[in-house]
Amino acid sequence: MRENAGPPDGRHSSKLDLRGIARRAMTERSLLPDFTGAAMQQVARLTEVVAEAAAAATGLRDLRDRLWVSIDNDDSLDLDQLSVAEPLAAGAVKVYVAIADVDALVAKGSAVDDHARANTTSVYTAAQIFPMLPEKLSTDLTSLRQDVDRAAIVIELTVASDGVISDSDVYRAAVRNRAKLAYNGVAAWLEGTGPAPAPVTAVKGVDEQLRIQDRVAQLLRARRLEHGALTLETVEARAVFDHETLTDLVPERRNRAKDLIEDLMIAANGVTARFLEARKIPSLRRVLRSPERWAKIVELAASLGERLPPEPSNAALEAFLKHRCAADPERFVDLSVSVVKLLGRGEYAVEQPGQTPIGHFALALRDYTHSTAPNRRFPDLITQRLIKCALANDKRAYSNGELGALASHCTEQEDNATKVERTVRKSAAALLLSSHVGETFEALVTGANSKGTWVRIAHPAAEGMLVRGTEGVDVGDKLQVKLVSTNFVRGFIDFARA
């Protein structure tokens, strides 16, 4: 059993305590918690005038008159994408997705780009956000803020009434966000459980825009599900603070507005991958390989009285998930967590023109990249530069060797960022559980390998190590566990099988 340790001096933890843990975890995982002086000097020289000049650059289409809207988290300022939709004949809809042109202000090889390339992602901890780009960029000059002109990469797709993407294009344009919206407010309105958010009623036509986008997003989702895309529901815990004191970890679930954006972005990412392929440009694909632990997924299904084929099939797995969600909705999140663990993690891989794609098993997609969040993910910025090369018929932005090294590096750093976020969540959970040592909880086994066995409890949302009673335990098992110790400093929560 690992040593027991509470908050410093026995106090309730403040954000300051958790920030210290977050910064230590960043350093231990080869992530940079701070920007260099050179990067900050580079940003200091940039102004709103520079950003507006980028939006007025020669050759950009002028789409600023469209009813562009953004939908993101309530407190998000690093707005990466906008969307707008145009009804066509026979139930078809033309969708436009605008992606912030970060490359216009962050040149390859610059000090800011070097930092972004090192970390490859923004890191979102319970105590502090470590942005990939300095905030003057990500939340201001490269953010698609409301009522300002911005340069963008526009991904245009025509969606037929059956959800098939019948036509698409990618080009540069100037755009203007007409309404900054938040997931929870839009979701409540779309689901009929709340009023329209103020920005929806403030700008004429935005309400109808959202209805159209919601409808086309559901068509796109239905089409993916027909091809075997997996319906998985996982829950992340959001830290709640009373001023500087942590008071709770609240699970955050998906909603209709999140689904809307997810569906449009998945479609846009597919269009981008095919666009680069058609122009014979290598691409950095986001892939999820056919699961190596399929036999364990088959065993998990069998334990619930269900049958899956001996060979991996996303269509069969989706049918199983759909049936279980209907049969036992209260435990579907637990089942989803188990399946996600057994599927393995996604990764980045270089695809050369003409190469057979690896594809994305969970999304049931042949062509998929990451392109819609260049303020937050470096692979998206790489893709943006590849798009610009394709549009300009210019030399490649990256050599094959660079892309290969970046694919491995981005995969590794994404994994490191996930571990940092998990470490801080565990420290927060250890604090909340420190007064419950000796109590018994219902738990789900979420991981079992040579490094240890891990279990998750629901209230508060927390994961810890099973330090005693691991014999015969595997992913997906449900156990009674006793909390035996917590270590706030190291983020350790230790359970024993009850």
Summarize the structure.
This protein has 498 residues and is α+β, with helices and mostly antiparallel strands. 38% of the residues lie in helices and 23% in strands. The chain folds into 2 domains: 1-30 and 417-498, OB fold (Dihydrolipoamide Acetyltransferase, E2P); 31-288 and 345-398, no CATH class.
Provide structural commentary.
38% of the residues lie in helices and 23% in strands. The protein has helices spanning 15-28, 37-44, 48-55, 111-119, 135-141, 183-190, 198-202, 206-226, 256-278, 294-303, 314-327, 332-343, 378-392, 400-433, and strands at 61-62, 69-72, 81-87, 93-100, 123-124, 129-130, 149-159, 165-176, 179-182, 236-242, 245-252, 283-287, 347-351, 440-449, 452-457, 462-468, 478-487, 492-497. The protein is of the alpha+beta class and 498 residues long. It is built from 14 helices and 18 strands. A 5-stranded mixed sheet has the order 1-8-7-4-3. The chain has a 5-stranded mixed barrel with strand order 14-15-16-18-17. A two-stranded parallel sheet has the order 2-9.
Query: What is the strand arrangement across the widest sheet?
Result: 1-8-7-4-3
Given the C-alpha coordinates, what overall shape results?
Answer: globular
Could you tell me the number of beta strands?
Answer: 18
Strand percentage, roughly? 15-25%
Give the tally of structural domains.
Answer: 2
Share of residues in helices:
25-40%
Structural class: alpha+beta
Give the averaged pLDDT, no decimals.
Answer: 93
Radius of gyration: 23 Å
Amino-to-carboxy terminus distance: 15 Å
Described by strand count, sense and barrel closure, the largest sheet is:
5 strands, mixed
Residue windows where pLDDT falls under 50 for at least 5 positions = none
The number of helical elements comes to 14
